[in-house]
Amino acid sequence: MSVRVRASRLFERQLQSFFKQKRSAHSVGIIGAPFSYGQKRRGVEGGPQAIRDGGLLERLSNLGCQVYDYGDLNLTTVPNDKPYNNHVHHPRTVGSANRILAESVSRAVGDGNLCVMLGGDHSLGIGSVYGNTQQQPDLCLIWVDAHADVNTPLTSPSGNLHGQSVSFLLRELQHKIPLLPGFSWLTPCISAKDVVYIGLRDVDPGEYYIMKNFGIQYFSMREIDQIGIQKVMERTLDHLIGRRKRPIHLSFDIDAFDPTLAPATGTPVIGGLTYREGMYIAEEVHNSGMLSVMDVVEVNPAIAASDEEIRATVNLAIDITTASLGQTREGSHCGIDELPSPSATYEQDEQTVRL
Ligand SMILES: [Mn+2]
């Protein structure tokens, strides 16, 4: 090896050690849940693969996270899954998928991981939140979404279970939920006061009734317009963890974003979050230090009009995930205590080269 090559390798090594990021304390478990039977448009089961292909795991590793990939769950359909009441679709299939997901999330959290669940449609919020409460019964829930997803099977206009997830979780609604086939394993596990919605702009009458009557804190797009995302996050975190620190479950539906930013999703609604508002939500959840499980749902690569639309939606999902786990827009000085100086050894080698 020539002296020049040796010198340049040495210099490279010095640079590497200088800029090596400090390992973050986060160990992150990734669970893929390729599932679409909580609504009628197939394709959202391709979400986990699209987000993986977009480089999520590499981005998290580069951030200093210790990443454990639990793989994608095998969520199959239950044969002869007749609608409940001739209206609620695929109850056994959705119930069974969520039971499997709940066990998986519970295990990943029990292993000591912060957990990222890649959906899949938002009916998976049932299993993800329930599984998390099995390890952390006192958690609170931030549901970022264009929709409240709190219809009961008896108020739902569409019969889609992805618009009913929160109703199955709320203790206050225990006696308003019929026993659906496939759901006997589930008991309500959170209280209305432990939930905050952000980004709402398409709320059904039954959902509005529930939000108002049970006192669920919400910040619709109107409140975001009115007081700004900074105040919204301040009030959200004050409401949930102001008096007592406890784990946060962040359930992020990509349709919370404006459809111009996240077009590859099943139920887009005009007038959604900007990129900066979404990033601020994620950053503030990270800064609370209490994030426990994050759901990233409703990315549907089969719906987009172009590859560019898929890429934009997937990149957005990845950006909010990495921001929730500590990526900052202003940069960071992880592992850098001082600027590098040309080292004596390097100078010496350079001289040798010159000779
Ligand atoms: Mn949703």
TrEMBL record:
Stretches the record annotates as Disordered: 328-355
CDD domains, per database record: Arginase
Assigned keywords, A-Z: Arginine metabolism, Hydrolase, Manganese, Metal-binding, Urea cycle
Cofactor, free-text remark: Binds 2 manganese ions per subunit.
Gene Ontology MF annotations: arginase activity; manganese ion binding
Cellular-component GO terms for this entry: mitochondrion
Cofactor(s) required, per the database record: Mn(2+)
A biological process term (GO) from this entry: urea cycle
Binding of Mn(2+), residues: H122, D145, H147, D149, D253, D255
Pfam hit, one: Arginase
EC identifiers of the protein: 3.5.3.1
Pathway involvement of the protein, from the record: Nitrogen metabolism; urea cycle; L-ornithine and urea from L-arginine: step 1/1
Catalytic reactions of this protein: L-arginine + H2O = urea + L-ornithine
Family: Belongs to the arginase family.
PANTHER family in the record: ARGINASE, ARGINASE-2, MITOCHONDRIAL
Subunit description: Homotrimer.
Listed name of the protein: Arginase
Organism expressing this protein natively: Callorhinchus milii
